[in-house]
Amino acid sequence: MTDDSGRKKLDWVRAHMPILQKIEDDVSVRRPFAGIKAAVCIHLEAKTGRLCEVLAAGGAEVYLAGSNPLSTQDDVAAELKHRGIHVFARHGCTPEEYDGYIASLIEAKPDIILDDGGDTVEMLLARYPEQAEHVLGGCEETTTGVSRLVTKAARGELPFPMISVNDALCKCLFDNRYGTGQSVWTGIMQTTNLTVAGKTVVVAGYGWCGKGVANRAKGLGASVIVTEIDPVKALEAYMDGFRVMPMRNALPLGDVFITVTGCTHVIDSKDVGLIKDGAILCNAGHFDVEVDVKGFRKLSTASREVRKNIMEYSFGDKRLYIIAEGRLVNLASGDGHPAEIMDMSFGLQALSAEYLIAHRLSPGVHPVPEEINAQVADLKLGSLGASIDVLTPEQKAYLDS
Ligand code: NAD
Ligand code: SAH
User: How far is the CA of 262 from the centre of ligand 1 (A)?
Assistant: First the structure.
């Protein structure tokens, strides 16, 4: 890493995030975020850095923490500090430090919160309830974060509006599916330096992310098995050409396992006897509980790091490998989704944040307004040099009749 590696990473993504560039050009003139303090808790790497720069260009004072201890890139953090963003993060921080960083965001008394996974909102409501009335609202980036908010709202425990960026089609269709599909394999291939072709890959969960991960595995030449709990999703996987079976049946067959469910103990340590010797286990879902890392650690007779980010656990004669401590493999062991994908997700974040400030929504979970989703799709098409047909008056009248 060179001294200016953070600057280079930010410059590289700037050149590949045309939607954010357009939004930045616009907000730096209109300044819709003037006087606003924005707390951003999203994976602290270059793409998130660009989002923060856009908010700052629109007038916001930005406070930034990483949303995962292993995805923070210290060179990017240092460069962002240099550029005037208030940064609270360190790669590989302890759980206590992680909490402390999020507390620092909250203690800055933010007007808006851009959260990824719900940790900031969770802490604000639990430890700083008096601050809730000052929060205009926020945006949530990921599936599990939205589920947490929906649960809170149903219990009457969400006192401000949160926009579910994750559920906008320009987010989940592209970020969760193509972004996770590609970056999970980049992370695994870079970390292991092994082939995918010919291996049996087991993907747990066939939601937005699982579809991407399974289909990219197929493209790389793997034989793919899908496990599911939802019969419709399972059928979809079957019709897409994958073998479908319960995890216990897949455990003896898989060479590489990827969990991406949002659930817990999808690969349980008590089933260690069923798993093939030498199997590689990784997770791409929100929390580090989908692969029961704690349980495997406890049961193992020996453990050692065999390659950067790969732990070998021995159980007598059997060895299993866990990547990145069972945390999101694409972010804890890679740079996460590509810039062109995060350009759409963060375009939605920036435009939704502006909408939130302009509209004073009621408490609860709100969808991204359809016009914002369409605006991001238009900007993306424009950046690709693609265009679409426009209905003629005759066609419009026909469809309306
Ligand atoms: P989703 O709801 O579309 O899909 C989850 C799927 O998992 C569902 O089909 C569900 O039926 C299935 N499932 C649940 N429990 C299961 C179990 N025990 N065994 C097998 N299948 C099970 O959600 P999604 O958008 O695909 O997100 C999945 C997870 O990935 C979430 O935790 C989300 O926050 C996270 N996520 C990660 C990234 C990343 O960059 N790694 C990106 C987006 C989302
Ligand atoms: N707090 C969680 C975060 C959930 S990660 C954790 O424990 O890690 C899932 C989210 O990461 C996705 O919704 C996706 O939009 C986001 N993401 C993926 N790649 C990214 C990248 N390169 N930069 C920033 N965010 C990214």
Answer: 5
